[in-house]
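Quick note —
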Amino acid sequence: MPIISSKSRTAFAPAVSPAAAPDGGDVEKIVKMVKIRTAQCPMKRMDDAWDVAHAAVFLASDEARFITEAELVLGGGLSYRVV
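Predicted structure written out below.
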């Protein structure tokens, strides 16, 4: 999705896509969901706010100055797992 567009140029920004994380609600359902997702994930844990923050800081850094049109998927390998 372009973030800046004109007749002559369009700029694209990289994106960070965190995995599903509990955001409140029924505690028992959250605990059950966390156990299921942790068991399914090759890294055996769910992402947390620090994982998202570190990815965003990297994309904002000079080291990522040439990265465009990219999406960092923070899924711990879950999206590449063959079930």
